[in-house]
Specification:
This protein is α/β, with parallel strands linked by helices. It has helices at residues 45-52, 122-144, 162-173, 188-193, 226-234, 258-262, 277-290, 293-299, 308-316; strands at 4-13, 16-25, 34-43, 68-76, 86-90, 105-108, 113-115, 153-157, 178-182, 198-201, 217-222, 241-244, 266-269, 300-304, 323-327. The protein has nine helices and 15 strands. Strand 12, helix 6 (258-262) and strand 13 (266-269) form a beta-alpha-beta unit. The longest helix has 23 residues, at 122-144.
C-alpha cells in the first residue's frame, strides 16, 4: 500500500461547500478495525445532496462522501475479516458522519461490512449498492406484511431511478405483475425491459377525486413521497401496504385516515441505514437470487471519480436513469 491515495474531499467555508480531489495520507483516515482498498462506490440521491452541500446531509467537514462502497480488505484487527476478503458496505452514516467511499481507501468498523456474495462481483455490488439493498428491504418488508405474487398488482413509484429500477426488476423476477410509475414517458421501453407489464404516468396517480380510489395495489414500493405516496395510499387494496423509502417528491403527505380505518392499510417506513449485519447478509442473499444479472447491466452507468460532482447535479435534477457506479481508481 502506498503512503498516499486519491480521495474526493468536501470542505465548507462561510456556508459554501466545495469539493476537490486530493492525495492524502492514510493517517487522515478515521478510526476503525478494518482497512479496505476501495474498488467502487455509488452515486445515490443522498450523495448528490452531499456533493451539492444541500439538506445538511454531511454532519462535519472535511468529509469524504460516498454512502456505499465495495472493495478488498487490506488490514484487519477483526476476527470477522482477513486481508484479501472482498466486502461491501452500505449505510451506517458512512459519507455523512464517517468518511465514505469516494477514496481509494476507507477505514471502518467491521460490523458495518458484509462479505461479498460469491455470485456478485465488486462492480455489480455497487450497481446494486444502497439502492438495491433499500429496494430488497422494501420488498421483504412488504412480504412480511402479506404481499404475494398471486395477489393484486405491485406498484413502484419513481421507477426509473436507482431504487425504483431495481425494485421493478426484482418484483418481476419474483412473479409480480409490476406497474411502473414514472414522470419520464421516454423511459417506458427501459422499464418494460426490466419486467414492468404496464407504465403509469405520474398524473394518473395524483390524489384527486376523493379520499379513496379504486382498490388496485397489493403492495407499493414508493421512492418519491409527497403526492405519489398520497395517491398510492388512496388506491391500495384491502390489507395492503406501502413501503416508503424516498422523499424526492416532498416530505409532506396530504392524506386521510380512511385508507387505514376502512381498508386496513399500512405505511411501512424503510430505513436501510442501520440494518444489522445478519439481516444485511440475508438481504444480499435474496438479491443474488432475485435480481437478474441482465438488469444489473441494464441499470448501471460507470463514471470515474472526477465526474462525481458534475453527475450529482444531474441526479438532483432527476436527469439520470438507473444506478451510477463510481470507479474510484479510474
Amino acid at each position: 500500500m502506498t503512503d498516499t491515495f486519491k480521495a474526493l474531499i468536501l470542505n465548507e467555508r462561510d456556508g459554501q461547500v466545495t469539493s476537490s480531489i486530493e492525495q492524502i495520507g492514510r493517517d487522515r483516515l478515521p478510526e476503525g478495525d478494518v482497512l479496505v482498498r476501495v474498488a467502487y462506490s455509488g452515486l445515490n440521491y443522498k450523495d448528490g445532496l452531499a456533493l451539492a452541500g444541500q439538506n445538511k446531509v454531511v454532519r462535519f467537514y472535511p468529509m469524504v462522501p460516498g454512502i456505499d462502497f465495495s472493495g478488498t480488505v487490506e488490514e484487519s484487527s477483526s476476527e470477522q475479516f482477513k486481508p484479501g476478503d472482498q466486502v461491501v458496505l452500505t449505510g451506517w452514516g458512512v459519507g455523512e458522519r464517517h468518511w465514505g467511499g469516494y477514496a481509494q481507501y476507507a477505514r471502518v468498523k467491521s460490523d458495518w461490512l458484509v462479505p461479498l456474495h460469491a455470485d456478485i462481483d465488486l462492480k455489480q455490488a455497487m450497481a446494486i449498492g444502497t439502492a438495491g439493498v433499500t429496494a430488497m428491504l422494501a420488498i421483504i418488508t412488504l412480504e412480511e406484511h402479506g404481499m404475494r405474487p398471486d395477489g393484486h398488482e405491485a406498484l413502484v413509484t419513481g421507477a426509473s431511478g436507482g431504487v425504483g429500477s431495481l425494485a421493478v426488476a426484482m418484483l418481476a423476477r419474483l412473479g409480480y405483475q409490476v406497474v411502473a410509475e414514472t414522470g419520464k414517458p421516454e423511459m417506458s421501453d427501459y422499464l418494460k425491459s426490466l419486467g414492468a407489464h404496464e407504465i403509469l404516468d405520474r398524473a394518473a396517480l395524483a390524489p384527486s377525486g376523493g379520499p379513496l380510489g379504486s382498490a388496485r395495489w397489493g403492495g407499493v414500493v414508493d421512492t418519491v413521497g409527497g403526492e405519489m405516496l398520497a395517491g398510492a395510499l388512496r388506491t391500495l387494496a384491502y390489507g395492503a401496504s406501502v413501503a416508503s423509502c424516498g422523499n424526492a417528491g416532498g416530505f409532506t403527505v396530504n392524506t386521510t385516515v380512511l385508507p387505514f380505518i376502512l381498508r386496513g392499510n399500512n405505511v411501512l417506513g424503510i430505513d436501510s441505514l442501520p440494518v444489522p449485519q445478519a439481516r444485511r447478509i440475508a438481504i444480499w442473499d435474496r438479491i443474488a437470487t432475485d435480481l437478474p444479472r441482465s438488469a444489473i447491466e441494464r441499470t448501471m452507468e460507470v463514471i470515474p471519480l472526477e465526474q462525481a460532482r458534475s453527475k450529482a447535479d444531474q441526479i438532483l435534477a432527476a436527469r439520470t436513469t438507473g444506478h451510477i457506479v463510481v470507479d474510484v481508481n479510474a
